[in-house]
Specification:
Layout (H helix, E strand, L loop, with lengths): L7 E2 L3 H5 L9 E4 L11 H18 L3 E7 L11 H16 L3 E6 L1 E3 L8 H10 L4 E4 L6 E3 H14 L6 E5 L7 H12 L5 E4 L10 H7 L8 H12 L2
Length: 236
């Protein structure tokens, strides 16, 4: 029997940020997916798929918002169970929802205990003086959950003519992992114990649709300002 009763499915960082949608009856926010890109347990993917199917069946003609990931275009993630799963669900949603927005989010930053987020991983290692590897060839794209909310709600408000599409919700400026580590060192006043390794590939994210909403704060989104801002906001 269908047990979906909330307009916001999930209880993590993104679901909490969109909690005000619980008071609406025209939009269903699905933010209960597999959050660890290294996940390989079939049961976790099956759980999300079942919940998506139930949510769509219950949502009827409401606008269905699904949070996917920009990792689907990351060359180092191609063929992974996580990416294949996300792409499968994106197709399923597009084929089974009258109204939908698929939100491919980058590395979302916010108040969360999830150890798998990029900033949490680095901050925890550096705070605890634990050694870790830094991929010299990689790039990461950090975006505040408040900016995610701003972009998504903008596209919701635009109405049906701007629905039924995939939106990359990401920062126009990506950063190297070493830049993140150095910013955390400065913020915490701690020297990190890391090893630089020749691994990873940078990948471009088309942020045209995000920039259309965040156009008035592009200067603030540049790494030399945005990284310290995020650290001060969430890692006091």
């Amino acid at each position: 029997m269908n047990t979906i009763r909330s307009m916001v499915v999930g209880n993590g960082m993104i679901a909490r940020r969109f909690s005000d949608f619980d008071d609406r009856d025209d939009v269903l926010i699905f933010a209960s997916g597999v959050s660890n890109s290294k996940e390989n347990r079939p049961a976790e993917f099956a759980r999300e798929q079942k919940l998506v199917e139930e949510s769509i069946a219950w949502s009827e003609n409401r606008l269905f918002i699904y949070f996917s990931t920009c990792s689907v275009t990351d060359p180092t993630e191609q063929g992974s169970l996580y990416v294949r799963h996300k792409l499968f669900l994106e197709t399923y949603i597009a084929e089974n929802c009258a109204h939908y927005l698929i939100i491919r989010a980058s590395n979302v930053v916010g108040g969360t205990e999830n150890p798998h987020t990029v900033l949490n991983f680095f901050v925890n290692r550096i705070r605890n003086q634990e050694p870790f590897d830094v991929w010299q060839g990689a790039s990461r794209n950090l975006i505040d959950v408040d900016d995610v909310y701003r972009i998504v709600t903008d596209y919701i408000a635009r109405g049906p003519n701007d629905w039924n599409q995939i939106i990359n919700v990401a920062n126009p400026y990506s950063v190297r992992p070493l830049e993140i580590v150095q910013a955390i060192e400065t913020h915490l006043g701690v020297t990190a114990r890391y090893r630089l390794i020749d691994k990873g590939e940078p990948f471009a994210i088309d942020t045209t649709k995000s920039k259309a909403v965040l156009h008035n704060k592009l200067t603030e989104l540049q790494p030399n300002r945005y990284l310290p801002y995020l650290l001060q906001k969430y890692y006091v």
